[in-house]
From TrEMBL:
Stretch forming the signal peptide: none
Domain CRM: 1-97
PROSITE patterns linked: CRM
Transmembrane segment boundaries: none
Pfam families hit by this protein: CRS1_YhbY
Listed GO MF terms: RNA binding
Annotated protein name in UniProt: CRM domain-containing protein
Lineage: superkingdom: Bacteria
Keywords: RNA-binding
């Protein structure tokens, strides 16, 4: 599902107060990080990922890899922070997705 600009704006405002949950460091984007991102998205739907100063990863490449492998949407890339969204597979964790779907295209 690709997000519209209105949906992106809504998610961006929701993410403003969030703290980064996942940090990518010198080991780069490995399977452990991907699993952490997948679990965090399933639990929260909207997360922030930070690329630490000591990583050699590029934020655009990281976003592309996560979109392909996890199936999430990139809401925003700013500096070394990445905001990701994915509708939760568990119904009890879907707090944001009904609001996102309600926003007209």
């Amino acid at each position: 599902m690709s997000l519209t600009s209105k949906q992106r704006a809504f998610l961006k405002s929701e993410a403003h107060t969030l703290k980064p949950i996942v940090q990518i460091g010198k080991n780069g984007l490995n399977d452990h990080i991907k699993t952490s991102v997948r679990n965090a998205l399933d639990a929260r739907e909207l997360i922030k990922v930070t690329l630490l100063q000591n990583t050699m990863e590029d934020i655009h490449e990281v976003a592309e890899i996560l979109e392909e492998e996890i199936g999430c949407d990139t809401v925003l890339k700013i500096g070394r922070i990445l905001i990701l969204y994915k509708e939760s597979a568990k119904k009890e964790n879907r707090k944001l997705s009904p609001n996102v779907k309600a926003i007209q295209k």
